[in-house]
Description:
mainly alpha
Amino acid sequence: xxxxxxxxxxxxxxxxxxxxxxxxxxxxAGSAMMGAILGGADEEQSRRLYQFAIELGxxxxxxxxxxxxxxxxxxxxxxxxxxxxxxKKTYMLINAFLRADASQRQELERWMEMEDFDRQEKVSAVTxxxxxxxxxxxxxxxxxxxxxxxKAYLDAVSVAEDRKKELRAYADRMMRRxx
Length: 179
């Protein structure tokens, strides 16, 4: 789906969220479910751990999209702006199109259609549009929403707190990887 979205003209937020759930969250959740089964958790506790990981995976992927635009290359570990230069339909780009006025939309479309461009110029121009549309704030709110929901599912797992300590630390490390 992720690669198909690159050639698709329009992608909805719902389609994007479904894609990242299948791409990232299910992988994290499958790992959590295996741990739950191996640890002898009952069905209800396993379901809560699975949902904790689904929500965490969503937050992680949205944060990955955010860091691709606003991260520090040295900390992030890859060149900033790769999603922009490859026209990836991320949560940020989809919402930029939804929030843009006619002039901003035309500018976004121009950059998306351009085949020959200066990489830094394109990244800078699209990032400036994101800034003007407050896409960074929108993305951070969504990341925090999923992270908060993941913690609520982990809180609902009925085991002693010390048994959840490593999962909490893992989730915190995942969400602090930009620092």
